[in-house]
Design goal:
The protein is of the alpha+beta class. The chain has 26 helices and 16 strands. The protein has 5 domains: 6-93, Zinc finger, CHC2-typedomain (DNA Primase, Chain A, Alpha-Beta Complex); 108-232, DNA primase, catalytic core, N-terminal domain (DNA primase DNAg catalytic core, N-terminal domain), CATH 3.90.980; 241-367, Dna Topoisomerase Vi A Subunit, Chain: A, domain 2 (3-Layer(aba) Sandwich); 370-409; 433-577, DNAb Helicase, Chain A, CATH 1.10.860. 50% of the residues lie in helices and 12% in strands. The strands form 4 sheets. The chain has a 5-stranded antiparallel sheet with strand order 1-2-3-4-5. The protein has a 5-stranded mixed sheet with strand order 13-12-14-15-16, sandwiched between helices. The structure holds zinc ion.
Length: 578
């Protein structure tokens, strides 16, 4: 049974500008003819591939094929059912909907109620702040202005009272518990947040949780957050993003800070491209969320041990999303660590920008903080860094970092450092696979890696996708590696589900080339060697003007050709390929 009449849906579809709805989530650029282009949120998009056509009311990604109308976008993006998506679109464009009588999502009503309770609580906390001298003087003491307080809708939870006030407005205690604002004790509900400054945590549709800063001094926990609820999943939200999402694409960079007050103070000082990671568990989902707005990140967390760990975690997660990453080290001249909050409170935005100007790229940051005196320590570091570099999707960035590693440690670069221009038949942006042009050695290699679990961890280290001359096979292998990084294996059905249609086709029709269990490693090493040699020979042609480089490539080729001979003589050469 349809929940809204077909007529209502049609009217809404006509009234809703799809570009305005999509802009709630993804920044769009006008491309002429009234159309828009943006980063596609449904695949790991590095160049804007999603077209939005307001006249037709549709979106279409030419990379992954995702597409549809405005409701489909909201449903897929927000994981909503149809009625919720209809309501979301109607709210966004200010379209009056008739009353809904029935709903299929069993959680829908509960989610909706939790949203309403959070909104109610936010307003109530704001009222309480106005009445609390101690809370007001705390904000004053931190230098938070009236304007900033209003912008972030900061409130105050007194000793008690929310349950009572919410009850008077028809919210039942058990729902307030479910919303995370009350706790159960001895069979009855009690206020969860007491004598705390309350900072609303918002997604793009409103308040989903709160962070509470202790003001009473009676609690061992300085900060307490709402627990996860039906509408609040910690790993899917970044504090501040609902406010900074316009500034981030404008600056084309994001600054990651630790806590609520870092974001709030930075905003007050005029640095608006900032989000807080709130804790050490920076997630892939959060990185992907950020990747829609920019690919440049400045990490500016505390310099203590926990902060350093969190910084490393951020580096790992952001690298896999092809971010270019710098670490802003906040130290005073006397060597004391400072947090962004106190820095901008004292010196304003310029003080932060000055430190940002001296930010180190992630590789130098890691190298500088690691003890690297003995050859063993250096080797270990290089090994680890190479693994990190191998997770990067962007071939050019990979090359840059490999070169940096080489400059700094004089190490030989065993991941390939050169990606040739696409072959002629791929030069136009064709979306068809030219089966005949797929080199048979590359087909064999991709088959053996994807379908032979014993080889996968080795392959990731020594067979970089950019070695392959076929763009299709290289991309397929990239997808496979990404899955391996995520799950520790390449399960073909899972891989299939993650692939865009063209690559699905490639995977299912990949010609089988046989290998034997005993022979696989040997053949694999030989194939990798062959590809490295032919890659180097291409590179040699472009290096004629740089004599040093030319000589170096020549000697690498010689080295690999020697290995080829030793392999022919029966030696196991795999270990030389790392
Ligand atoms: Zn896409």
């Amino acid at each position: 049974m349809p929940l809204y009449s077909e007529e209502t849906i049609q009217q809404l579809k006509e009234a809703a500008d799809i570009s305005i709805v999509i802009e709630q989530f993804v920044p769009l650029k006008r491309t002429g003819g009234g159309k828009y282009l943006g980063l596609c949120p449904f695949h790991n998009d590095s160049h804007p591939s999603m077209n939005v056509n307001p006249h037709m009311g549709i979106y279409k990604c030419f990379a992954c094929g995702a597409g549809g109308n405005v409701f489909k976008f909201v449903m897929e993006h927000e994981k909503m059912n149809f009625p919720s998506a209809v309501e979301f679109v109607a709210n966004t464009v200010g379209f009056p909907l008739p009353k809904l009588t029935q709903t299929q999502d069993i959680h829908y009503e509960e989610k909706d109620l939790i949203r309403k309770i959070n909104e109610f609580a936010k307003d109530w906390f704001k009222e309480q702040l106005a009445k609390s001298d101690s809370a007001k003087s705390y904000l004053e003491q931190r230098g938070i202005t009236e304007k900033t307080k209003d912008l972030f809708e900061i409130g105050y939870a007194p000793q008690s009272g929310l349950l009572l006030a919410a009850g008077k407005n028809g919210f039942k205690p058990e729902m307030i518990v479910k919303a995370g604002l009350a706790a159960e004790k001895d069979g009855r509900a009690i206020d969860k947040f007491r004598e705390r400054l309350m900072i609303p945590i918002c997604n793009f549709s409103g308040v989903v949780a709160f962070g509470g800063r202790d003001l009473g001094g009676n609690s061992p926990a300085k900060y307490m957050n709402s627990p996860e609820t039906l509408i609040y999943n910690k790993s899917e939200i970044l504090f501040g993003l609902n406010k900074s999402r316009r500034a981030i694409p404008k600056e084309d960079s994001v600054i990651l800070v630790e806590g609520y007050f870092d974001v709030i103070s930075m905003f007050q000082s005029g640095v608006e491209n900032v989000v807080a990671i709130s804790g050490i568990g920076f997630s892939d989902t959060q990185a992907k969320l950020l990747a829609r707005y920019t690919k440049t990140a400045y990490i500016s967390l505390d310099g203590d041990e926990a902060g350093q760990k969190a910084t490393e975690r951020c580096i790992e997660v952001l690298l896999a999303q092809s971010f270019s990453i710098s670490v802003v080290n906040l130290m005073s001249e006397s060597g004391e660590k400072i947090d962004p909050d106190s820095l901008v409170m004292q010196g304003g935005a310029e003080a932060f920008r000055a430190h940002q100007g001296k930010a180190k790229n992630w590789l130098n940051y890691l190298a500088d903080k690691t003890k690297l005196t003995s050859p063993d320590e250096k080797a270990k570091f290089v090994e680890r860094t190479k693994k990190l570099i191998a997770t990067m999707n962007n071939a050019e960035l990979r090359n840059q970092y490999l070169n940096l590693l080489k400059e700094r440690f004089g190490t030989s670069v065993s991941l390939p450092v050169f990606r040739p221009k696409p072959q002629a038949e791929f030069a136009q942006n064709t979306d068809e696979i030219h089966w005949k042009s797929l080199p048979s050695i590359e087909i064999w290699l991709v088959n053996v890696i994807l379908k032979n679990p014993d080889l996968q961890s080795t392959a990731i280290q020594i067979c970089d996708p950019s070695l392959l001359s076929s763009r299709w096979l290289a991309e397929l292998l990239d997808y496979g590696y990404a899955l391996y990084e995520e799950t520790g294996k390449i399960e073909l059905r899972t891989l299939y589900d993650k692939l865009p249609d063209t690559h699905k086709d490639l995977l299912t029709h990949l010609p089988e080339k046989p290998w034997t269990k005993e022979g696989a490693v040997k053949e694999f090493s030989n194939a990798v060697l062959k590809l490295r040699i032919s890659r180097l020979k291409v590179e040699l042609k472009t290096a004629r003007e740089d004599f040093e480089r030319y000589k170096e490539i020549q000697s690498q080729i010689k080295h690999y050709e020697d290995l080829e001979q030793r392999a022919k003589d029966g030696e196991d050469i795999l270990k030389f390929l790392y």
